[in-house]
Structures are given as structure tokens and as C-alpha cells.
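haha ok so turns out i had the wrong file open the whole time. this is the CORRECT one, sorry everyone. sequence first:
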Amino acid sequence: MTVTLYDLSVWVLPLIFAITFHEAAHGFVAHRLGDNTAWQLGRVSFNPIRHIDPFGTLIMPAILLMSHAPFLFGYAKPVPVNFRALRNPRTDMIWVALAGPATNIALALLAAAAFHILGLLPAPVARWTFDNLKNALQINVVLAIFNMMPIPPLDGGRVAVGLLPRALALPLARLEPVGMLILIGILILLPLAGSQFGLNLDVISAILRAATSYVIRAILFVTGNG
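then structure:
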């Protein structure tokens, strides 16, 4: 399938906005709760260049797309947070982690609400705007749902570490250095291995797709597009 400039314009823009706002939200909330690390490093910014990770944001998704992997995902440069500098480290860590996915859901709501202005635009502009808004809705919901998986260093993993009793939180927190390898194994390698034996081991991505579909339908309903 040939990728056109039009395709790039309606996918790249909402992706950049989703990633940029997600990461900036982490840094902003951390700053408000007492940790200035991201603020001093210039990561509380809407400049996408400060957040894009060449491998995680560009190369990995491209490789997965070209290899027809069962699940497509990527990541930006994590915003540095010194949790010890937060005023209430255990509780504030949860709010910092939730800031990214919550911002993505807010962006998805704005995109869905903006469908109502399409009738005011000239036809060619309306089509381009609709495609951007549709992709923004999908990308932001996918990013929010994916990041809430309870595996560090994803946001859901950090929320789980903040909520679980210390006896369970500490072993989970220790997974953070190998968290991305675990994700790659669960979402990509395990389904590929299963397919060699005629087994469907793509359970996690199926759950993520179902959750994403449900949230998108809920957002469309709430914004009067149901």
C-alpha cells in the first residue's frame, strides 16, 4: 500500500499532538506537585522535538507496520520524574502517572466534540479535518488505554505501584528496567510463536482492542455523536 502525503498529514499531526501533550502533562503535574526535574530540562513543553524518541516513536512502529506484527505500538522519551522530590511521593506518583492518559482522553473528547463544526467548513477542508479528528480520537484513546497496562514503566504500572501494598508494590517496581521487553514479549513475540503452532495467544492485544472500542463508543455518545 502506497503512503501518500495526505495519509501522512492526517496521521502524523494527531500522533505528534497526542504524544507531546501526554508527556508535557506528566512534567507539568510533577512540577505542580514539587518536582522541578522535567521543568528544568525543558520537558514541560509543547515542542514535539523534546519528546520524540527516534527508535520508540519512529523506527519501532515502522518496523512493526512493515512486518505485519499483530500489535502496533511505540513510545516517546519518558519525562524524568524524581518521585522523592514530590511532596507526597506515594500518592503524587499516581497523579503524575495518570496525567498522561487523562490528557489523552481529554484530547479525544475535544476531537469528538469538534465533529460538530465540520458542516461549517468547505468540503475539501472538512474531509481533511474529519480525517485528522477521527485519527486523533483513535490515537489518543489507544495511547491512554495502552499506557494504563499495569506494567512499569507504563503509567498503569506506576499507578499500580502507588496503590498496591508495599509487599506487592516493590516486586512490581523492580520490573521497570525490563518492562518494555516484557511488553514486546507479550504483545508481539508470544502471538507470533503461538501462530506457528496454530494457537491464538494474542489475548492481551484483543483485550486492548475491545477496551479501545468501548471507550471510543462512550466518547462519541457523550459528545453527541452516538
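Residues 5-222 form one domain.
again sry for the mixup
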